[in-house]
Amino acid sequence: MKIHLVARGPSAGREGFASVVAVLASMAVTGFLIALAGANPVTGFFVMFKAAFIGKIAITETLARAAPLLLTGLAAIVALRVKFWNIGGEGQFLAGAMAAAFFGAVVQIPTILLIPAMIVSAMLAGGLTAVFPAFLKTRLRVNEVVSTLMLNFIIVYLMMALLSGPWKDPISSWADSPDILPAAEWPTFWRGTHLHLGVLLAVLTMIAVAVLLRKTTFGFAMDVVGDNPVAATHARISVERTVLISALISGALAGLAGAGEVGGIQYQVMGSISSGYGYAGLIVAMLARLSPMAATPAALFLASLMTGSDEMSRQLGVPSSLADAVQGITLLAVLIATQIARYRLHVSWGTKRSAE
Q1: Is 196 in a helix, a strand, or coil?
Q2: Contacts for 140 with CB less than 8 Å, ≥ 6 apart
Q3: Residues 72, 281: contact at Cβ < 8 Å?
């Protein structure tokens, strides 16, 4: 008896249904984990839903958390389209945050240029952080999973060195960067909330990425390179250039997410500035099946999970790290469901040859 996988015919509906089933399965596991923590799962889900969607503060907080998730999700989508496995979204996010914090606190820049300087510098910092492992991949065949992942730790330790060294507050000795200037704080669309400019930029970026992937020749080249690099070469599409540009765009999007956290939420860099947004972006990309438009509901789902878990922790005593566990479970569930949607098990029975 032989068991092997047989590819099914392509079906967007089947894969979409598989993603929905995966999310429902992950939520069922979440209920089990809530029960293990000593709380009522029904009460826990109600608290999470209320904290994420009921009231002005809840809705705007969810949207504010969804913005960096959407941007890092788009970053992962762009990279994965060319089969560049960018696991370095976290480091690119932090690189963008540090660049934005630096330029946001520079007095010599004209006031009107502060926010544009933060955005451009953050995107350049994130983009260059992603281009380096892409260069290693295209020129030296270095595995990008390893290089991008290890680069995350390098960026984290660089940030901590800055926070405990040159950026350390000489008076309070707190390990955080200097506050950005008031003129560098990103405008909010609703007073008293965190609904800042970065949320709008995330939505506009999603539209821009969708247009790039679907309506441009470069988007077509990305798909060809991702599907068949040999065919791309025969079609005179530069695989190396396409991968490098895609990595640059991917890192720039993650860097923009870091700028949003500095300019619209924290107004400085601190050790806890990221809630794992870079890694969560991969989950957003998988849930969205590499579709920019579908990345928005995926980001909202994870953002509501983060917001709701924090409130559930305060009210019911459930560990706030539950959100991190559920993110990992959701990713595994989506990967398994995607494989089931794309392949089916085939069992073949061998026949014995008759004796001569």
Answers
A1: strand
A2: none
A3: yes
d(CA 87, CA 91): 9
Closest CA to 100 of 282, 254, 278, 327: 254
| Top-confidence residue, 276 or 217 | 217
The closest of 121, 74, 117, 116 to 96, measured between CA atoms, is 121
The pLDDT of 114-127, averaged and rounded, is: 96
CB 303 within 8 A of CB 11: no
Higher pLDDT, 335 or 268: 268
Closest by Cα among 149, 153, 158, 12 to 99: 158
Torsion angles phi and psi, residue 12, rounded to 5: -65, -35
The amino acid present at 254, given as its one-letter code, is A
Q: Which two tokens stand for residue 206?
A: 């999603």
Q: Give the lowest-confidence range in 67-76, 223-232, 317-326.
A: 317-326
Task: Please provide residue 108's backbone torsions phi and psi, each rounded to the nearest 5 degrees.
Answer: -70, -15
Burial class (CB in 10 A: 0-12, 13-18, 19+), 263: buried
